[in-house]
């Protein structure tokens, strides 16, 4: 796939994952072609790739739509994550390298500064950094099979865009939980890392399914 299709794919992927494109929204090829200044082929290639990754559904005679996630979908993904990622956090506490720990500390500091400054796209940046933190924990577990399974779940559109639903209080709590998690990993306290990650994921699910107003 050529560069124009890559650019359209990356732009649409970000818009879907950050909530700019809502679940069920119709992705009209002609509109996308005009918006991105490309021909029809790159748009179709990008939409096909998004469909392969579960971000878009393509319906015969109707076109492409942003994939919809139901509460049952969210519950299923979070229940699996709540089984896998606490185990990964415990392994990370036992196996992490100093370099990985420093990266986790850096991500926490970046997220806290991002929340403090609150630029116009700060929720998008928080979502990106949150994904990086969870991925780094999975990498630190040093379990390739666990990583390949769990990392795919963290990329689910509803998961990546979850910060769009958070109130200020919920954001603060999430960032504190990240600090507690990284502190446990730093202390090589596997039991605490497991418990913090499990509580963090369960709280995230409650936030996504019953969002609080700002």
How would you sum up this structure, described in words?
Keywords: DNA-binding, Transcription, Transcription regulation. This is GntR family transcriptional regulator. With 214 residues, the chain is mostly helical. The protein contains ten helices and three strands. The chain has two domains: 3-66, Winged helix-like DNA-binding domain superfamily/Winged helix DNA-binding domain (Arc Repressor Mutant, subunit A), CATH 1.10.10.10; 71-209, GntR ligand-binding domain-like (Four Helix Bundle (Hemerythrin (Met), subunit A), Up-down Bundle), CATH 1.20.120. A three-stranded antiparallel beta sheet has the order 1-3-2. Strand 2 (56-59) and strand 3 (63-66) form a beta hairpin. Helix 4 runs antiparallel to helix 7 (144-154), helix 4 (71-95) packs antiparallel against helix 10 and helix 5 (98-117) runs antiparallel to helix 9 (168-186). It is elongated.
Helices, strands, pairings?
Elements: H1 3-17, E1 26-27, H2 29-36, H3 40-52, E2 56-59, E3 63-66, H4 71-95, H5 98-117, H6 122-140, H7 144-154, H8 157-160, H9 168-186, H10 190-209
Antiparallel strand pairs: 1-3, 2-3
Helix pairs in contact: 1-3, 2-3, 4-6, 4-7, 4-9, 4-10, 5-6, 5-9, 6-7, 9-10
Protein name: GntR family transcriptional regulator
Organism: Saccharopolyspora oryzae
InterPro entries: GntR_C, TF_FadR/GntR_C, Tscrpt_reg_HTH_GntR, WH-like_DNA-bd_sf, WH_DNA-bd_sf
Note the main attributes of this structure.
single chain, 214 residues, mainly alpha, Arc Repressor Mutant, subunit A, Four Helix Bundle (Hemerythrin (Met), subunit A), 3-stranded antiparallel β-sheet
């Amino acid at each position: 796939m050529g560069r124009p299709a890559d650019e359209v794919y990356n732009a649409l992927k970000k818009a879907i994952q950050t909530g700019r494109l809502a679940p069920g929204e119709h992705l009209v090829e002609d509109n996308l072609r005009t918006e991105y200044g490309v021909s029809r082929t790159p748009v179709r290639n990008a939409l096909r790739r998004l469909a392969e990754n579960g971000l878009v559904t393509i319906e015969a005679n109707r076109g492409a739509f942003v994939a919809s996630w139901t509460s049952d979908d969210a519950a299923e993904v979070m229940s699996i994550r709540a089984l896998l990622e606490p185990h990964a956090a415990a392994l990370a506490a036992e196996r992490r390298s100093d370099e990985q720990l420093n990266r986790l500390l850096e991500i926490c500091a970046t997220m806290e500064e991002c929340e403090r400054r609150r630029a116009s796209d700060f929720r998008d940046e928080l979502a990106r950094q949150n994904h990086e933190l969870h991925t780094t924990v999975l990498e630190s577990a040093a379990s390739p099979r666990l990583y390949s399974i769990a990392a795919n779940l963290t990329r689910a559109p509803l998961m990546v865009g979850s910060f769009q639903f958070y109130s200020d209080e919920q954001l603060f709590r999430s960032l504190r939980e990240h600090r507690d998690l990284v502190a446990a990993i730093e202390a090589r306290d596997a039991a605490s890392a497991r418990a913090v990650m499990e509580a963090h994921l369960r709280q995230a699910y409650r936030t996504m399914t019953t969002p609080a107003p700002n």
